[in-house]
Design a protein that fits this description.
Radius of gyration: 19 Å
CATH class of the largest domain: Alpha Beta
CATH topology of the largest domain: 2-enoyl-CoA Hydratase, Chain A, domain 1
Strand order of the largest sheet: 1-2-3-5-7-10
CATH architecture of the largest domain: Alpha-Beta Complex
Shape: globular
Distance between the termini: 38 Å
Number of strands: 10
Structural class: alpha/beta
Number of helices: 10
CATH superfamily of the largest domain: 2-enoyl-CoA Hydratase, Chain A, domain 1
Strand content: 5-15%
């Protein structure tokens, strides 16, 4: 869940678009909510930062207009997506609080069920790598690097031990976790940890295009789709199949957007989503 103890750079406070957060930037003014980790220089996570992230994501619960979440690191953290949680996360006095705060991000992401796109530039280590792995889509630059070094500290990442086998398969997950060796962006793409590797100069264009394509779809349908994929990935097959059938028959087909999509197909036109 964390990386080796490091010397932290001074914390920089930035003006927030909507909410007064200290360690993140948050803008949910449009159909895409933008969460930027902002604890220069290495985005080392502390409990307050983790709680801010969970609070921001959870605030989208009543927001049917928001289609998806974009997660990245501030430009002030050049070279780092996140170096994981700080050394205090290993002490007996703090480990439970740190783990609970970290896991709360995953819980709210799961409960909210809005697609999350992670944009990774530079190093994603420990908790930073786990966070990226749990996102639905990951776009990385060629200088991105992913690390799970906990084994070298005599521990293992509990969240990573659960997430990685489902994302990249048990054999690759075991190699990543047992060796603690870093992998580059190309290796991460080959094993299915990330979706695309792009040159830095093409990053904004690639992310903007992907965000546009997804955000043009029906918000409620995106949410239900993510929920079904999550159920199928994380629950036993029979249970997941039943839950997927229930969502499909009893929730999806009650949506006005589903009826509009079928009607548009018959009328040979582009659907006009009402997000209801």
């Amino acid at each position: 869940m964390a990386d080796e103890p490091i010397e932290q750079s001074p914390e920089v406070e930035k003006e927030e678009p909507k909410k007064d957060f200290k360690f993140i930037r948050w803008d949910d003014s449009g159909v895409v909510a933008h969460l930027t980790m902002n604890r220069p220089k290495q985005n080392v996570m502390n409990i307050e930062m983790l709680r801010e992230m969970a609070t921001a994501i959870e605030s989208l619960a009543p927001r049917e207009d928001v289609r998806l979440i974009l997660l990245d690191a501030s430009p002030e953290c050049e070279g780092y997506f996140s170096l994981g949680v700080g050394a205090e996360g290993y002490t007996q006095q703090m480990v439970f609080q740190m783990m609970d705060a970290f896991h709360s991000i995953f819980r709210v992401m799961m409960e909210l069920s809005k697609p999350v796109i992670a944009v990774v530039e530079g190093v994603a280590s420990g908790a930073g790598a786990e966070l990226a792995a749990f996102c639905d889509l990951v776009i990385a630059t060629e200088n991105a690097q992913f690390r799970q070094p906990e084994i070298k500290l005599g521990v293992f990442p509990p969240m990573g031990a659960v997430v990685y086998p489902r994302v990249i398969g048990p054999h690759r997950a075991m190699e990543l976790l047992l060796t603690g060796d870093p992998i580059n962006a190309s290796q991460a793409q080959q094993m299915g940890l990330i979706n695309r590797v792009v040159p830095r100069e093409k990053l904004k264009e690639t992310v903007d295009s992907l965000v546009k394509r997804i955000s043009e779809q029906s918000g409620p349908v995106l949410t239900l789709l993510k929920r079904v994929v999550f159920e199928g990935t994380w629950r036993p097959f029979d249970e997941a199949l039943k839950r997927a059938q229930n969502l499909y028959l009893n929730q999806l087909f009650d949506l006005q957007d589903s009826k509009e999509g079928v009607q548009a197909l018959f009328e040979k036109r582009k659907p006009v989503w009402k997000n209801r």
